[in-house]
Structure prediction request, 262 residues.
Amino acid sequence: MAATEEKQDGILDTVKTVVYALLIAGVFRTLFFQPFWIPSGSMKDTLLVGDFLFVNKMAYGYSAYSCPFGICPISDRLLARQPERGDVVVFRHPVSGQDYIKRLIGLPGDDVQMRNGVLFLNGQPQKQEPDGIFSEVFERQGSVGGVPACANGAPGFGATCEKPRSRETLEGGTEHNILNIRDGLAGDNTPVFSVPEGHFFFMGDNRDNSIDSRFPQAGGGVGFVPFKNLLGRADRVIFSSAGRRMLFFWTWRGDRFFKAIE
Prediction:
């Protein structure tokens, strides 16, 4: 009888431990960090399909969507910290509610425009310097199984997919890589976008393969994103998998463990 009771107590203790661990993990996720898996190539080569990262939900204070359990103890205005130009941010799409990850380009009050593939902020061109070629294998990527867009056409499965890479410097000094697939696409030439108060303008680093604030929400684009939709800042890749599943450890990219995000 004693042995049976001892066994039951052991099982109960194990169950309690698991429940407590799950509760702690849930609270940690709700309050501080949110996991995010990169599903598409819109942020290459800064972020690759299969990168796994944690979003810092406290980077800007809590917004309406990142509050613990949806309840903020005081107003958003008192809690908010101003996002900085060049931050890589996870936000909720203003229409679809899907989570997106892009680079913050335009702050409230900014004028943003693309002219012949060059970014203009407040009427000033942002510096771009050629930085070689970004190469990857032309193959199906991630759980979605999409193939990359290439500047050298469709090279065939297993061949090398190439895109010219440049180093862009934003107003304020932030530097990052951008990619170009071909000239003259819709996002290369835009009207002037005047970012309204309380909103932000986002773009993907893989400029020709990103649906972002350059495109209107009515057509499936992102448009301007209000502060309340910001979930947090992406600071570091935890690990990365080149395979179709996160648990396929033999496909993990060893050079991306704990890699800082520029």
Remarks:
- The chain is about 15% helix and 30% strand.
- The helical segments are 2-31, 76-79.
- Residues 6-10, 14-30, 74-79 have pLDDT under 50 and may be disordered.
